[in-house]
């Protein structure tokens, strides 16, 4: 072993010891005093060792760890291609940008084309549609599944419709059979925002498949509360080699070159091609085919992701187990609508969705205030109704976006719904405390 290797081994061993001292000791839970968070980092010494290992290599940008993660994550999902990026929001932007590539011809999404989505969700599912000059068409939700109301799809369709872009809400798959059939009938693209549903499965065409891999493109987020984390990070995945090429182009400055970091002349014609109106032989590494961005992740983030991948099956199992515990504990509680798994699905739950009935005798805000006062962290379903937010005030219905119906369920979610955590860091004591606190509030009312 060289001196360098000896030093590195010592540093990594010390990192393991540091983890045990700083993060590895179990924290005592005291009901009513210890805060019960909705989510958080779930890790051990392997993530810290990988992070330090990658930092010592000092590659910094996307490199060997990133390539390793993309390969392994694609294998776990069961898809051919994966592109790592710097966030789930960037993943959504890249996925939608790929559909605007001019090489797609008549199927390319252009300014003024329509994209069916929902207003009850995270804003960066909708933002790329408008940022690219397309028109979102908002349909309503189903309250128990907290997902898109697929009965409104045909009403939403027009001659301008090019795609459906919608999320699997809180890990519960939307009705993929209905959405996929609709897209096949009309020749539409389907982007699955899979940021909250990593590991969820759906039975389609006689086969169980992971959500995010059934449409044309899927996206994931690796923000700390999500199923796995890199701190910040995201991914775009597909089985379509053409879309994969465009995703990478938009991610990497819009370049035409497909060389991975640190490699030159993969195409074999770096100085012999002829592109656009550039002079013959112009360096292919500096040919740009799209108006792109720089949305790459770092190798240090990817190193953390590689360690997280080893835990992902266990993470999914524990999220499902925690959800079932909460569902059984709250069954029959008056005034609440509890979540129901989508038919033909095996959700990998992100959160436990609760809706307060209109006639419950108390409001969502009264219940969540009580929970927060008793150290239980709560979250609304993100935007609730995105159209009610200040960001939409400059836009005009009929010109910048279109709405199907009155979105009354979306408004109900905005006013009456919230969710609690089921992440793997939850102990049975914490789950029971959350359920007991809800029941105590309801009983008192």
List keywords for this structure.
445 residues; alpha/beta; Aspartate Aminotransferase, domain 2; Aspartate Aminotransferase, domain 1; eight-stranded mixed sheet; three-stranded antiparallel sheet; 13 helices
What does this structure look like?
There is one protein chain. This protein has 445 residues and is α/β, with parallel strands linked by helices. The chain folds into 3 domains: 52-259 and 289-308, Aspartate Aminotransferase, domain 2 (3-Layer(aba) Sandwich), CATH 3.40.640.10; 260-288, no CATH class; 313-444, Aspartate Aminotransferase, domain 1 (Alpha-Beta Complex). Helices cover 36% and strands 15% of the residues. The chain has 13 helices and 16 strands. It has helices at residues 3-22, 45-57, 64-77, 88-98, 123-131, 153-156, 176-186, 241-251, 299-309, 312-330, 364-373, 408-416, 428-444, and strands at 81-85, 114-118, 135-139, 141-142, 147-148, 161-167, 189-193, 201-204, 207-210, 217-221, 234-238, 336-337, 345-346, 351-356, 402-403, 417-421. A hairpin with a 4-residue loop joins strand 4 and strand 5.
